[in-house]
Amino acid sequence: MTLLQIDHLRVQFTNRLGTFTPLNDVSLTLHAGEILGIVGESGAGKSLTGLSVMGLLDPPLKMTGGKIFFKQKRIDQYSENEFRTIRGKSIGAIFQDPLTSLNPLFTVGEQLVETIQTHFPLEYKIAREKALNLLKDVGIPAPQERLDQYPHQFSGGMRQRVVIALALASEPDLILADEPTTALDVCVQAQIISLLKDICRSRKTAVMLITHDMGVIAQICDRVAVMYAGRVVEIAKVDTILNSPKHPYTQALIASIPDLQAPSGEKYRLTQIKGNMPRLNELIQGCPFKPRCDYATNQCTHLPMATYFEDHHEVHCWLTSSK
Ligand SMILES: Nc1ncnc2c1ncn2[C@@H]1O[C@H](COP(=O)(O)OP(=O)(O)OP(=O)(O)O)[C@@H](O)[C@H]1O
Ligand SMILES: [Mg+2]
Questions:
Q1: Ligand 1 and 48: CB distance under 6 A
Q2: 58 CB within 6 A, ligand 1
Q3: Which bound ligand lies closest to the C-alpha atom of 178?
Q4: How many domains in the chain?
Q5: Quick one: which of 65, 55, 58 has its CA closest to 24?
């Protein structure tokens, strides 16, 4: 079942220098219980895609085109009050810095109990029991004592576990996780990603996981959408993206993953993608990857149509286009 559907989303803003389009014609679907990765380099539009879904675009950013459906209901035209009925309830969020989601003045238990009681008509004792179970589920040792501690008493990794517990407290259908482990060290990062995967799989909670890290994508996702300069350039199952990417940008991203299997003593070879992503004020005719693409031809001054391969593998590139 389709849980979230983004159709031709366009986000723009205008300032004294002109009108800019950080998201252009983004279309994505997320199925119930699915873990979809959104990957791409800094500025590609990953976070704005997530913020659009949650109705959290700050002015002057504005959705100027497209539609967003959540559980078959069109939500992009919701008022702030209507968005509040789904945000933090059917759609939970986890951001990079756990401290933005936690209130330093209240204990972790108080925050969990409050969230639980906001969404379910439970008396304090039962809500606290539920909070305790959530802390257990996210792997916090000695949860009984931890419940009465403040966020600053937790390490970064433990704090992010608490944020996951908070996001799960309302029993959402979808969790939007924007770089949830980027601030953590690599070892803790792997633990948190694996926890997120296990817990969302067992609860059948869908996840939209935003990251610039292909390693994280490989560890957890079912499908991946690759974004470049405000557009989706390729979407496919994670294995397909990792093993047979078709878009030259995806191919370059995959080639830039450090080879962890490199024989000891040999330096990791990290291929950089030459050049930079176009800035918002650079107008590029046609495919935005053209200036960095080894395969660019005259055709690329026009935007390619999407081409579809087996298993809903979608590619936006003239190389694979039949037209
Ligand atoms: N409030 C804003 N006002 C103007 N431009 C913005 C605003 N927020 C984001 N942008 C621009 O929109 C583009 C997409 O931003 P977005 O934050 O979605 O990128 P991202 O893919 O999440 O990057 P990162 O990996 O660095 O988080 C960028 O060029 C960014 O500078
Ligand atoms: Mg971002």
A1: yes
A2: yes
A3: 2
A4: 1
A5: 65
- Does residue 280's CB lie within 6 angstroms of at least one atom of ligand 1? yes
> Which residue do the tokens 């606290």 mark?
128
Please tell me whether the peptide bond between 121 and the residue prior to it is cis, using omega within 30 degrees of 0: no
What is the C-alpha separation between 256 and 278, in angstroms, rounded? 19
Residue 99 lies in a domain: no
Question: Which residues are paired to 223 by β-bridges?
Answer: 36, 237
Residue 267 lies in a domain: yes
CA of 46 from ligand 1 middle (Å) equals 8
Phi, psi of 162 (to 5 degrees): -65, -40
Range of the domain at 229: 2-90+170-315
The per-residue pLDDT string of the chain (323 residues; one tens digit each, 9 = 90 and over) reads: 999 999 999 999 999 999 999 999 999 999 999 999 999 999 999 999 999 999 999 999 999 999 999 999 999 999 999 999 999 899 999 998 888 889 999 999 999 999 999 999 999 999 999 999 999 999 999 999 999 999 999 999 999 999 999 999 999 999 999 999 988 888 889 999 999 999 999 999 999 999 988 889 999 999 999 999 999 999 999 999 999 999 999 999 998 877 655 555 554 455 678 888 999 988 888 999 999 999 999 999 999 999 999 999 999 999 998 65
CATH of the domain at 49: 3.40.50.300
* 61 close to ligand 1 (CB < 6 Angstrom): yes
Distance between CA atoms of 39 and 234, rounded to whole angstroms? 10
- The pairing of beta strand 206-211 with beta strand 62-70: unpaired
Residue 150 located in a structural domain = no
* Closest atom of ligand 1 relative to the 51 alpha carbon: 18
Look at residue 290 and tell me if it is in a domain: yes
Q: Is 43 in the pocket of ligand 1 (CB under 6 A)?
A: yes
Is residue 40 within 8 A of residue 228, CB to CB? The reply is yes
User: Separation of 107 CA from ligand 1 center, angstroms?
Assistant: 33
Q: Are 272 and 288 in contact (CB under 8 A)?
A: no
